[in-house]
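User: My advisor, Dr. K., asked me to get a structural model of this assembly before our group meeting. I'm new to this, so sorry if the format is off. These are the inputs:
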Amino acid sequence: MNKPVSPDQFITDEDGPLYAPRKKVYPQGVSGRFRSIKWRLMAVCLGVYYLLPFVRWNRGLGAPDQAVLIDFPNRRFYFFFIELWPQEIYYFTGLLVLAALALFLMNALGGRIWCGYLCPQTVWTDLFYAVERLVEGDRRAQIKADAGPMTAKRAGRRMLKHAIWLMIAWWTGGAWVLYFADAPTLVRDLATFQAPAIAYVWIAILTASTYLLAGYMREQVCVYMCPWPRIQAALTDEWALNVTYKYDRGEPRCSVKKAFDIRALGEKAGDCIDCNQCVAACPTGIDIRDGAQLDCIQCGLCIDACDAVMTKVSRKTRLIGYDNDINVQRRIAGKEEIFKPVRARTVVYAGLITVVCAVMLYALMSRTLLDVNVLHDRNPIAVRLSDGATHNGYTLRFLNKRGFDRVIAIDVDGPAEAKLHVIGADSVTPDRPMIVLGRDTTTELRVLVTAPFDERAEKSVPVTFRITDIGLGEVASATDHFVLP
Amino acid sequence: MSEHNEFDHVSGRSTTGHEWDGIKELNTPLPRWWVLTFYATIIWAIGYWVVYPAWPLVSGYTTGLFHYSTRASVATDLTDLEKLRGEKMAVLGNASLANIEKDPALLALARARGKTVFADNCAPCHGSGGAGAKGFPNLNDDDWLWGGSLDQIMQTIQFGARSGHAKTHEGQMLAFGRDGILKKDEIVTVANYVRSLSGLSIAPKFDATAGKKLFTENCTSCHGDNGKGNPELGAPNLTDQIWLYGSDEETLVETITNGRAGVMPAWVGRLDPVTVKALAVYVHSLGGGK
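Assistant: The format is fine. Below is the predicted structure of the whole assembly, which you can bring to the meeting.
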């Protein structure tokens, strides 16, 4: 077993150990503008996540009435008015492209907005920290308790904290499975232990991952596991606003009293009083005054911490704020601050987002709810009949994406005088076969196309199957080839 | 060796006391989680021995508490499959042939079953798609030696042709040449006459009158006055475009000289009645069924 090594035995310069043990972070609770934004966003994000499965959406008789449902057994995805089939998975590709572009745009405008406010890792970790502070006290109380002996009171509090954490984690896993089945029914089944085993397994998996990721791994996920900080660093530019310590104003750091003395002598004293409140509030345990760094998730809590102190010592707030290095340099040079939210990068990202949105919207609007695919028989490809005529066999597959049955007519357009024969579904109108397509399903049909003997006929001609919904007039077609033996 | 242990100030760890050519080895213990995981796998392995088959014995092996066996689980799966199929097949068994074709669900079921059975039993002669070969009829076309209705197809599958079964189709194409019924030049004449029936080209010196006479005397009893054939006897229609053995003069001469008697086995004892039914529907649905 690894023996704990006392800190003075560590040499922390370049020759130090490759793997440092994690230093536990005790972020101090703060209040202020960014904290309240974070509370609100947390409420929205968690509210949507936990409650969305219970939103109902009427799709007519026989169809599920859950607004958002991923129906694996029936291979359907329902999202309010949209119902997608597995072969339409490319809409999700579009959604992912959109998500990536939105991330880039956010980054170009205000740095790691996603990391600081919206990422599930941040939202749940933030919630777990809040629980920790509520039960075990704020930063100072926790550090003191951890340094001291384990008392019954401390053990009790710790157990209470873990119980609440596990409850939140369990609820997270519970909400997850509700997206895959009818939520009210599943809740009842879960409560009466009649739900399928897989539901319990997934709740257990997500309970464990939430508990571990938000309770234990926390900022290490952002610092060591997540690829986005690395990509983000490559995608940013000098105009992007990031949570920045304005060192032009802050340096040199000195206490309020000392600053008073220095300023009395007419020399420059910085506004930073070196109170370390920004460090205490940081959920990743860094010092923002060291400049932009990979570990910073830009949650803005140091801004709130610093603003509170600045207000207390009657100095201008926003010593830490959304800013960039260009403005720091301009202020040093005595020039006006400038902000450029509209620049080539943001315009291109916004343009791309608009284009992808438009393409997706168009694809969604023009998507067909009736479709047909054709597969030519492979063996035999063509059959000579006794009167010299030829027939080819095809398998037609019809897709009816509407929530009701409908009748379609099949027409064939191919070799001269071609006749269509539907196996097992000869209707009363033999010249124009009609069949019933079941609601929200596919129907497979074997058909034969027969062409009379014709000396001049080409070896292979295109053949088109055109289907028409008798009621709605919707059409679809599929093309293959008609070949001679 | 422990007296040689030293504390290394750079890494903050002690050495193991091992030293080779002045190089000392740091004591780098395994992480606690790794060791615990390792112990857990050992415990797991012991548990595995207890509940699953593990150790070979002189004859046999330790079966474990679960008595698990892959062979038994395959057998169970097969039994379950048979049971599942049995339920569905019973529905097929109770429906009439005509009704199966009218009901899309039953048709799909019969076609699925028929397709597998066809591939296992019929494809060696008739081809995987039923396209046939020389001497083995194409089942996709509309030319049927023994009739192409659902009932006739089922009859043929059950009892075969010249299979030796009591109810099999019987019918003989005589060996007119080998048995000395017709002379060589007469056979050529008849062959050319038969070719003329379906509009095929004929030899230049062909005597149509003689041909017709020979045909009427020898062939019409089975193939009919106008050569349209007779499904009762398995006599093919000689006026159409489909030839089981070939329509060129040489092949026809051979056919008339030596006769033909293709054999199809009876499947009645080898396939269960419902499977035969499914097979009949499948063959009928290939496209040539009447």
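One thing worth pointing out at the meeting: Chain A has three domains: 20-235, 242-332, 370-483.

User: Perfect, thanks a lot.
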